[in-house]
Amino acid sequence: MNGHKDEVAKQNWQCYKCKIPMSMGKVKITYMGNDFNIDLLKCSECGLTLVSEDLAVRKMFEVEQTLEDK
Fold first, then answer.
1. Does the global pTM surpass 0.70?
2. What is residue 8's three-state secondary structure?
3. How far apart are CA 37 and CA 12, in angstroms?
4. Which residues on adjacent β-strands are paired with residue 42?
5. CA–CA separation, 27 vs 19, rounded Å?
6. Distance CA 38, CA 8 (A)
7. How many CA atoms lie within 13 A of 62 on its CB side?
8. Which residues pair with 50 in a beta bridge?
9. d(Cα 42, Cα 27) in Å, to the nearest integer?
């Protein structure tokens, strides 16, 4: 996932609400009672987080499958 994180970070994303650049930071994601801390782009002002399509579709699907198989 580091390659994906680096690819997203290289783009100049800005917060839609605050109009300031987003930066990498720890974000807590909860799924089926399990917490995961991952690095995502987020707004330092309002906390808005960018979840890329690749992460939402591919990586989260893998996590879902792993958790549901348990």
1. no
2. helix
3. 23
4. 23, 49
5. 20
6. 14
7. 5
8. 41
9. 8
Using the structure block, give the residue that is written with the tokens 């917060």: 15
In the chain, the domains with their CATH numbers are 2-69 (3.10.20)
Q: Where are the alpha helices (DSSP H) in the chain?
A: 2-10, 53-54, 60-69
Q: What are the pLDDT digits (tens) for 1-46?
A: 455 555 655 578 999 999 999 999 999 988 778 888 989 999 999 9
Give burial (CB, 10 Å; 0-12/13-18/19+) of 66.
exposed
62: left (phi over 0), alpha (psi -120 to 50) or beta: alpha
Q: Which amino acid is at 37?
A: N
